[in-house]
Amino acid sequence: MNRSGSDTAFAAAKRVIPGGVNSTVRAFKGVGGTPVFMRSAKGAYLTDVDGNDYLDYVLSWGPMIAGHAHPDVVRALQEAATRGTSYGTPTEYETELARMIVAAVPSIDKVRFCSSGTEATANAIRLARGYTGRDKFIKFEGCYHGCADPFLIAAGSSALTTGVPNSKGVPAATARDTLIVPYNDAAAVRAAFEHNPEQIAAVIVEPCVGNMGFVQPLPGFLAALRTLTREFGALLIFDEVMTGFRVGMGGVQKREGVLPDITTLGKVIGGGLPVGAFGGTAEILDHLTPDGDVFQAGTLSGNPMAMSAGIATLRLLSDTTFAHLEGLATRLCSGMAEVFRRRSVPHWVGAAGSMFGFFFTDGPVTDLAGAKTADTALYARFFHAMLDRGVYFAPSQFEAGFLSLAHDRAEIDRTIELADDALAATLQ
Ligand code: PLP
């Protein structure tokens, strides 16, 4: 496969953009080689600058659940654009998308929009601190909540593959207020509460993790977080930026029947445009300015283009579409597991809704320590073998995969066949 256009584009980008990318994971540090520069996308496929097509299991890191350039989303954007792209005033688009979110996500009475998942989690922590009058919060090792300072302690996603899970530039004073515990370890959460009496504002968690690879909560873990936060007077924040409208209409909270105090959202609710949101009970959310005294603002918050794309995307989703997507994800995972088994490769696979993942290690993987036992060198070789066969998986072992409404059974089955071929070539 000729990718010389990407090589040229990357060299040009590096001269004017640090590392040639505007988000670290895109640089292929986790797998080596040159990132592929895309020119367009349609349905389940990406097309690069050399004209090569790739079946896309990254989907812009989650948002594109409708598939790329879905006609409904494109039409909504065209109509919105002709009316102006930003007004800096309230609009009815925001109320409409807020209503759709409130109707679907069980713990949300009110929701505030911003422009990224990072803003959503940063605002959620500020709200929890303002509400409780406490400064510290608990975060789980390997969970990623965006690139704001307080979250870059033992962070997942690209912070893992660049080898800087604790970024330089984060003040020690900031880091001191982020308490780190292993994922799925409720006893460690209790110990953190007991060692920091009346100081912990919140526990923030990816209720199903996509950022140390795909890791599910053990039975009872989320319920234990709910019990512990109540017992110690802290708020429970589910970071559903990735899982919201991804694992099902009501997120992980609906699947697992555990309701947080605050939920953060992003990705799918913007249909591929920059967006974030945080919501919860009216009692907590009303502490935000202008009615309350916890500040939040944003020039492009609730932007009409992002709201329009989000509304059009959510209109395509239902319990029925999620049942269909989960069927595809399960088919993909069991097919991949069969290939790995046949080729004697240690593995652990999992899926929830339209999200999935696989590790090259003997499972089960329940936390970051387990995820780190994965054979990243084998993953890198497998990733490149798949890329050469026209399949775009995440360029890191420590990321989840995603399916869209544009993927079908034939593509899943073809992926499994190609995986067998790729693995055979990889293991030679
Ligand atoms: N929270 C989670 C769970 C995420 O997966 C991400 C991004 O991948 C974020 C927060 C940050 O979102 P954004 O990249 O839009 O700032």
Write up this protein:
With 428 residues, the protein is of the alpha/beta class. The chain folds into 2 domains: 4-69 and 317-427, Aspartate Aminotransferase, domain 1 (Alpha-Beta Complex), CATH 3.90.1150.10; 71-315, Type I PLP-dependent aspartate aminotransferase-like (Major domain) (Aspartate Aminotransferase, domain 2). The chain contains 15 helices and 14 strands. It has helices at residues 4-16, 71-82, 92-104, 117-132, 158-161, 172-176, 186-195, 221-231, 251-256, 282-285, 304-315, 319-342, 368-371, 376-388, 409-427, and strands spanning 38-42, 45-48, 53-56, 110-114, 136-140, 178-181, 200-205, 235-239, 262-266, 276-280, 348-352, 355-359, 391-392, 401-402. It has a 7-stranded mixed sheet, sandwiched between helices. Helix 9 (251-256) links the parallel strand 8 and strand 9 (262-266). The longest helix has 24 residues, at 319-342. The chain is globular and about 60 Å long. The relative contact order is 0.17. The model has no long low-confidence stretch (mean pLDDT 96). Bound molecules: pyridoxal-5'-phosphate (PLP). Pyridoxal-5'-phosphate binds next to helix 4.
Provide the fold topology:
Elements: H1 4-16, E1 38-42, E2 45-48, E3 53-56, H2 71-82, H3 92-104, E4 110-114, H4 117-132, E5 136-140, H5 158-161, H6 172-176, E6 178-181, H7 186-195, E7 200-205, H8 221-231, E8 235-239, H9 251-256, E9 262-266, E10 276-280, H10 282-285, H11 304-315, H12 319-342, E11 348-352, E12 355-359, H13 368-371, H14 376-388, E13 391-392, E14 401-402, H15 409-427
Parallel strand pairs: 3-13, 5-6, 5-7, 7-8, 8-9
Antiparallel strand pairs: 1-2, 2-3, 4-10, 9-10, 11-12, 12-14
Helix pairs in contact: 2-11, 3-11, 7-8, 12-15, 14-15
